[in-house]
Amino acid sequence: MTPSGFVLLDKNPGETSFKALFPLKRVFSTKRVGHAGTLDLRASGLIVAAIGRATRLLPFVEAKDKCYTFRLHLGYETDTLEWDGDVVVQGEFGIRNSEFGIDEGVILREPWSTKCDRGNRRIQGGLTREDLEAVLPQFTGDIDQIPPRYCAVKIDGRRASDWAERGKDFEMKPRRIHIESLKIVGEGGVTEGCSGKSFATFDLECVCSKGTYIRSLGRDLAHALGTYGCVSQIRRHHIGNITLDNAVKGENLTAENLVPVDKVLDYPVLRLDDTQMAIIRKGNWLPWKTPVEGVGPEGHVFVANGVGEVLSLCRFEPGRICPKYFLGGDD
After folding, report:
1. CA neighbor of 179 nearest in space, from 321, 67, 285, 32
2. Contact predicate 85/284, CB 8 Å
3. Which tops the pLDDT comparison, 3 or 297?
4. Does 142 qualify as catalytic in the annotation?
5. Can you tell me the distance from the alpha carbon of 268 to that of 135, in angstroms, rounded to the nearest whole number?
6. How many CB atoms lie within 10 A of CB 274?
7. How does pLDDT run across 168-191, given as a tens digit for each residue?
8. Among the options 40, 65, 220, 262, which is catalytic?
9. Angle at 215 between CA 214 and CA 221, to 5 degrees
10. Pick from 156, 137, 215, 210: which is nearest to 178 by CA?
């Protein structure tokens, strides 16, 4: 019988999110696996994976906000919007072409080769931490974002990255996303293997909604500063209240790393006796007159058997509990 539950993985940079699931198939001897929220190939960090019937719950995990850290490189832009992609434009601070509203050749500040301190302010290429902080409010709240051309968004039935690799001309449409918070957590870091030349680098932390592309955020931050940009060292630390602290590397995965569903999704848990559970198992609603604390707007609750094993996701309505997904082990 295939177990059901979640596994918190710490994905390595350089492996796909799909490949990161291979250890689950081996350890739990099943092909019924999935994950919530794809990470870029070069990104690392938290992936919430599921096995067995718990895969039905992945959309509820994926809908939660995510927290990332990343390094912003200012001075050049690449085709992939990553630090080591093919450079499509190289510029200095304040040198952008008229497509972005700044005349090419206009130097607004010192050239990127300048690096010094003025009082307590660190200057990188004439750009200060305060300059970047001044544009951050433009990127919080609900904003429209254009995904990178190299991404998994479907265009005419194929991934945008597939069309980009074939040299096809296509348009990426903007998407509405939400950025809860965006702040600088460091500056002046060095990433090996850059294909262009940066005049400044900053490390940032972002809490954002599903569908946010950190690579696009880096590009847009640079444009707001009047220059070009790309990113490196993308790492996901949180999905909702699930943290990377409890995640395991795929190569270290064991059966003991299986996490009960109620430890990942914080819905109320109701204990049922065998007769009540049999009603839910048959797909019928169960009368329930006792108030349930902590129910969210969706009304989701877990129901568990007498020993506390969660066996179903249900919807609580006044006076009754309606079954949604059975989560017991596969037969």
Report:
1. 67
2. no
3. 297
4. no
5. 41
6. 9
7. 777 778 999 999 999 999 999 999
8. 40
9. 85
10. 210
